[in-house]
Amino acid sequence: MLTHLKIKNYALIERLELTPNPALNIITGETGAGKSIMLGAIGLLLGNRADTKTLYNPEDKCVIEGEFNLSGFIIKNLFDEEELDYEDHCIIRREISPQGKTRAFINDTPVNLETLRRIASQLMDVHSQHDNLLLGATEYQLQIVDTFAQNDTLLEKYKLDFSNYQKAYKAYDELVSDAKNSKKEFDYNSFLLEELQKAKLKGHELESLEAELNKLENAEDVKSKLQQSVEILNGTEQSIISLFGTTLANLNAISQYGEHFRQLRERLNSCLIEIKDITNEIEGESEQVEIDNEKITALQVRVDTIYHLLQKHQVKKDTDLLKIQADLEVNVGKVLNLDENLAEAKAKVEKAEKALQKSAEALSKSRLNVLSTIEAQITSLLIDLGMPNAALKVENEFIKPSPTGINVVNLLFSANKGIKPQPLKNVASGGEFSRLMLAIKYILANKRALPTIVFDEIDTGISGEVSIKVGNMMREMSKSHQIIAITHLHQIAAQGAVHYFVYKDHSSERTVSRIKELSKDERIMEIAQMIGGQNPSIAILNNAREILEKHLQE
């Protein structure tokens, strides 16, 4: 339940704090004093859209903070799913900066609005005139049935099966579409694949082929030049090696006449050794050079084949051709295995459809089982609320599986005898809508583990004895739920465990909204003014005292 509410810098509220009672809390006040502003602030805690225009001081940030006691309330699993720390004492905070940036926190952990809405919606239910409009929507009416039937588990299972069916059907549908396109291109792709496979491509082959071909095409010239080099180095009497030998012999003959002659001899000898080694290598290279015209022709054919494929597929590397070949193998393989893949995908669709149908029937059965009970309970409550001829009919229509099931329900209503129930939007007045919504909230109260319910002027269009019964219903609901009710009726105001009064304070340069908890005497005066106006008579004051004391003793 809500244990403390703090509102700072919001609309006409400079700063407001409220500590609600666990039972029935009544809020009254003059029109425009700020009651609806409080609801707007609470709406921010529930994830409603924020607007910088609502800032009391446009240069300061707005802070809305609600403290909740979650003890005895099974919600820890929801915190776990959102990866939030759980404590029995929970603080939800919403901030709006002057620049328009909004932030949300749960137990001081930043959260997005989706998470905020998911958590806060399980802590508070705010009923306003907007809910009366929602009541005419079939989606909202179906939610009423599901809440009454406590279909959370069945609905979650159905939604999971519906999602699985959609995924399976989408996969099958895409496979059918791909198959149609693949069949059209199958022959051409098969030809391209066969051509690439026949080429027996290897990665990075072209570069080595061109290098080898270049060498073979110039083999005669290479071999000739190598042989000439060998001849010059060691082929005749006047070869470089023989000349080096003669020179070395001369230096050797005079080496005894000086150390520097011996050094020159050694240096020349080292050069001669290197030249002989080079000559041997050149001879070896010459022997390895082959003149093979057949191999040249084969290499030229191979290179031309690869270049032809590169040009045909508009790529630059032979490795790109291998990627294209792999893709073609997949595409052609899909067609070759088409019947098997389609059969497998279709089997998955049929399996998912059976699971969906099973969960849809279970959910539908649970819904249908409570329709007559909902009709009877709401009709009985409407009679107690001063509508003796009221009749409610919950009409069901079966549809194809949708995100919410295979049912569409429609609440048909008549407030007058002899008039056939019609859709709500066609027949219900404002007061009838309010009483009908109260009856719905009443029967749903014990079906949901919802600790706090807020009613914003749900007493619209009622008075007299009916308003007393409305107050009784709220007080009954407050035995198991915290109720916060904004009202204009003294019959309801007198039934609260506590009574708060919202008023405008004009004592400063700028008007602000404030709220205070009324004492017993202040409650008597407020109820008397609600009955008889600004200056109530002694008789009205006594009447107000009698009404209040009667409810305080109950």
From TrEMBL:
InterPro entries: DNA_recomb/repair_RecN (IPR004604), P-loop_NTPase (IPR027417), RecF/RecN/SMC_N (IPR003395)
CDD domains recorded: ABC_RecN
Coiled-coil ranges per UniProt: 199-236, 261-295, 335-369
Record flagged with keyword Nuclease: no
Domain RecF/RecN/SMC N-terminal: 2-506
DNA repair listed as a keyword: yes
Keyword tags: ATP-binding, Coiled coil, DNA damage, DNA repair, Nucleotide-binding
Physiological role: May be involved in recombinational repair of damaged DNA.
Family classification: Belongs to the RecN family.
Protein name per the record: DNA repair protein RecN
UniProt source species: Flectobacillus longus
